[in-house]
Design a protein that fits this description.
9 helices; single chain; binds zinc ion; TIM Barrel; alpha/beta
Length: about 260
C-alpha cells in the first residue's frame, strides 16, 4: 500500500475525471491521497474533494506565492476546523519565485502556524531559497507543538536534521529520481525511515520515466521504488513504512 502525501487533485487536467485518476492510483497500489490547497478558494475545493472521496483527505491554506486574497487568521482557523482538513498548508516561504521585500510572506507563514496550533493540526511546509528564515519562523512560532512535513524536500542534510529536531517529517517527491539529484539522494539515504514520506506534488514534477509529462498520484510508486533502491529495502517495505508514517502524522486522515 502507498500513500501520496502531497498532490493537487483539484489542479489535474480536467480531461480525466477524479474518479479515473483515483482508480488509476488504486491500480498502482496508492490507497490514499492528501490533496493540498494553495489558496483560499482552493481550500474549498480540497475540502469538497475530501468530502466526496473517502480515500482523499485535504489541507487548507494559501501557498507562499499565492496572490489571491490574504487569508485572515480567523478564516484559516475556520477552514482548518473542518473534519475533512487534516493539515494546514501548504505554507512556508518561497524566495525563489517572489523577490523584494517579502515581509508579507513571513507574516502569512506565521498566521498559518498560529492557525495550525489553534486547531491542533500539523503543517505542510514549502520552502525554497529561504532556509534560515523558514527554520527561524518555525521556531519562533513554536511549530514543534503541532509538527508537520517539509514537503518536496530539496535541501541538504543539515537542513533536514534541523527540521527533524523540530519533530518534522521529510517528504521526497519525484525529484529524487532526476538524473542530477545525487545530493538529494544522499539525504534520502540518511533521513530516519520513520520520518520519511513520499509524494508526487502532481500535476507538477513527474518522476522519471514520465518526466515532462503530467504527473498524477499513481506515479508516487516511482518515488517509492527509488527510495527502496536507496535504502536497499523491498518497495513493499517502503510502502508500509511511509503509509504508517503518514497516518501517524495525519491521524485525521484515517477517518476523513
Ligand atoms: Zn510546494
Ligand atoms: Zn504542492
Amino acid at each position: 500500500m502507498l500513500v501520496d502525501s502531497h498532490c493537487h487533485l483539484q489542479m489535474l487536467d480536467p480531461s480525466e475525471s477524479t474518479e479515473a485518476v483515483l482508480a488509476r492510483a488504486a491500480e498502482a497500489g496508492v490507497q490514499h491521497c492528501l490533496t493540498v490547497a494553495v489558496s483560499l478558494a482552493d481550500s474549498a475545493r480540497t475540502l469538497a474533494l475530501a468530502q466526496e472521496f473517502p480515500q482523499v483527505s485535504a489541507s487548507v491554506g494559501a501557498h507562499p506565492s499565492d496572490d489571491g486574497p490574504e487569508p485572515t487568521a480567523a478564516e484559516l482557523v475556520r477552514l482548518a476546523q473542518s473534519p475533512h482538513a487534516v493539515a494546514v498548508g501548504e505554507t512556508g516561504l518561497d524566495y525563489h519565485y517572489n523577490k523584494g521585500d517579502l515581509e508579507w510572506q513571513r507574516e502569512r507563514f506565521r498566521q498559518h502556524i498560529r492557525a495550525a496550533r489553534e486547531v491542533g493540526k500539523p503543517l505542510i511546509v514549502h520552502t525554497r531559497d529561504a532556509r534560515e528564515d523558514t527554520v527561524r519562523i518555525l521556531r519562533e512560532e513554536k511549530a514543534h507543538e503541532v509538527g508537520g512535513v517539509m514537503h518536496c524536500f530539496t535541501e541538504d542534510y543539515d537542513m533536514a536534521a534541523r527540521c527533524l529536531d523540530m519533530g518534522f517529517y521529510i517528504s521526497f517527491s519525484g525529484i529524487v529520481t532526476f538524473r542530477n539529484a545525487e545530493s538529494l539522494r544522499d539525504v534520502a539515504r540518511r533521513v530516519p525511515l520513520e520520518r520519511v514520506l513520499i509524494e508526487t506534488d502532481s500535476p507538477f514534477l513527474a518522476p522519471v520515466p514520465h518526466r515532462g509529462k503530467p504527473n498524477q498520484p499513481a506515479l508516487v510508486r516511482h518515488v517509492a521504488e527509488k527510495i527502496a533502491e536507496l535504502r536497499e529495502l523491498p518497495v513493499e517495505e517502503i510502502g508500509r513504512i511511509t503509509t504508517e508514517n503518514f497516518f501517524r502524522l495525519f491521524p485525521a486522515a484515517a477517518n476523513a
